[in-house]
């Protein structure tokens, strides 16, 4: 087998994980265009430091770079959001849904499709309203399917902290879901 160039090895190793990386950047910046800026910086960093990527570790390695690039970008461009990250609503102006890959159920009928779309919208809003550390833990675990250990590696915190953040995030999501459900029942929806 001939030796592959570093660029080819990078493409084969890192590029398959770009969707997951963009998803994290989008959730952290809450904006499509800003996520693209973060991704450009993150991919350049990844290429520059590709020698530090261990075999079989590309996905968490890339996500750690994206996370760092996102927080660097936020500190430089929106410093207030780094302190009060959950105060800004997500920008969905490009029409994409943060969790569009989470729900793959076929639309049985228009009513069922409408209900699923409303559920997706509510879930997007509830996740976006989480504090940054909870939101990134949920995105990495539930949307990107990383293990607790991989999340700990990406975020630089102990596994116990990951577990605690996920537990608290899930409780907040459940509480938010229940609150909305009770309001709808109270209105006769």
Write the layout of secondary structure elements.
Layout: H1 6-14, H2 18-29, H3 32-48, H4 58-77, H5 79-83, H6 110-128, H7 132-143, H8 148-155, H9 159-187
Helix pairs in contact: 2-3, 2-4, 2-7, 3-4, 4-8, 6-9, 7-9, 8-9
What report would you give on this structure?
The protein is elongated, with a radius of gyration of 18 Å. The termini are far apart. The protein has two domains: 7-85, RNA polymerase sigma factor, region 2, helix turn helix motif (Rna Polymerase Sigma Factor, Chain: A, Orthogonal Bundle), CATH 1.10.1740; 102-189, Arc Repressor Mutant, subunit A. It has helices at residues 6-14, 18-29, 32-48, 58-77, 79-83, 110-128, 132-143, 148-155, 159-187. It has nine helices and no strands. Residues 84-107 have low confidence and may be disordered. By secondary structure, it is an all-alpha fold.
How would you summarize what this structure contains?
With 189 residues, the protein is mainly alpha-helical. It is built from 9 helices and no strands. 26% of the residues are buried.
Helix segment count? 9
Number of domains: 2
Order of helices and strands: HHHHHHHHH
Largest sheet: none
Considering the protein shown, what is the CATH homologous superfamily of the largest domain?
Answer: Winged helix-like DNA-binding domain superfamily/Winged helix DNA-binding domain
Give keywords.
single chain; 189 residues; mainly alpha; Rna Polymerase Sigma Factor, Chain: A; Arc Repressor Mutant, subunit A; 2 domains; 9 helices; 69% helix
